[in-house]
């Protein structure tokens, strides 16, 4: 069976099971309503499994599966952690000090992990992993059967060790088998280049601790060398260092609300720009794409809604929430999303992303479940370099940003 047909079969099966089982149970729950009636249904189902299943069930595994499904129904980032997983999480969420450099999320319908974007310069990107690749399995463990946290844990390990991935890619009828070698993170430093028309170009590869200070230094250096306009490129850039995102936005803002976070039990926390931390008031454009996520989205939303500059590209990924660990009995734990980030106007970023001011597609939009895509690019290519210089003749988004920044005031007003 081809993998395209396999995807379709899984999809049909998932929908059938959803309506036949979950729909039936929820129908009964809706009729009674209330938490106790829902628990009653759960207990009844568990009782039937114990008494009537074809063979004696492993109740521990059944309960783990139920808990995993319960938490994954909330979002991709909440998870139940076994004692072993919780111990690993406390040790910096890794079972080693090596990784392959992939930003991941969970496909909502089928439940597989997929690549938001490979981190430039890391093992996954060099091996040819692409944004949108679906990870069917890691070391023969289906990512459909484990949480996102477990998926990320499987990818980590001792430096120099290898890990096997089976990928599904649009346009391919067969899976793609890759063996990646884990290594220490090699995030490229912020790239600073002086382009035509005295435009200072800043490429950020990932929001990591200290990146805001690095960007600050690059801005001052470019300004000293004549930059009078800036492009901040956060395409294919992620990282959950939200405080760094706040600080980076503040480098370009001297007033206004950058963002705020809030949750059911998490009080509203507003982040306001500090004028003393602003380093430039020069015209600005921000480049983003579907691979722009988390802290990068905080920056884009702040620049856009404070009317500080133009956001160019396509809608960003939509990942901006805070997680908190809750220890449970038997050394287990629950990881829950407790707050979401909102833009100045109150728009939630999680699951929605940030819409650009100027939509310009780059032809590299990530896979969004288009199983029958006609994309014929099956090749696995290794980039020739980890810090490719921006090509204004080929990069439509960059060209648009330059066009916006170099337009006359009259032209800008007409375009607005």
Structure description:
The chain is of the alpha+beta class. Helix content is 33%, strand content 21%. It is built from 11 helices and 17 strands. Strands 2, 3, 4, 5, 6 and 7 form a 6-stranded antiparallel β-sheet that branches. A 6-stranded mixed β-sheet has the order 8-9-10-13-14-17, with helices on both faces.
Summarize this structure briefly.
By secondary structure, the chain is an alpha+beta fold. 33% of the residues lie in helices and 21% in strands. The chain is globular and about 75 Å long.
Please supply descriptive tags for the structure shown above:
alpha+beta; 416 residues; 2-enoyl-CoA Hydratase, Chain A, domain 1; six-stranded antiparallel β-sheet; single chain; Pdz3 Domain
Characterize the main sheet. Answer: 6 strands, antiparallel
How does CATH name the architecture of the largest domain? Alpha-Beta Complex
Series of H and E elements: HHHEHEEHEEHEEEEHEHEEEHEEEEHH
Q: Would you tell me which CATH topology of the largest domain applies?
A: 2-enoyl-CoA Hydratase, Chain A, domain 1
- Helix count from the secondary structure assignment: 11
Q: Averaging pLDDT over every residue, what do you get?
A: 85
Superfamily at the CATH H level of the largest domain? Answer: 2-enoyl-CoA Hydratase, Chain A, domain 1
Radius of gyration computed on alpha carbons: 23 Å
Q: What's the CATH class label of the largest domain?
A: Alpha Beta
- Summed up, the domain count is 3
Based on helices, strands and strand pairing, what is the structural class? alpha+beta
Q: Can you tell me the residue ranges where pLDDT is under 50 for at least 5 consecutive residues?
A: 5-32, 364-389
Distance between the amino and carboxyl termini:
52 Å
Shape: globular
Question: Share of helix among residues?
Answer: 25-40%
Write down how many β-strands occur, each being a DSSP E stretch of 2 or more residues.
Answer: 17
Give the DSSP E fraction (strand runs of 2 or more residues).
15-25%
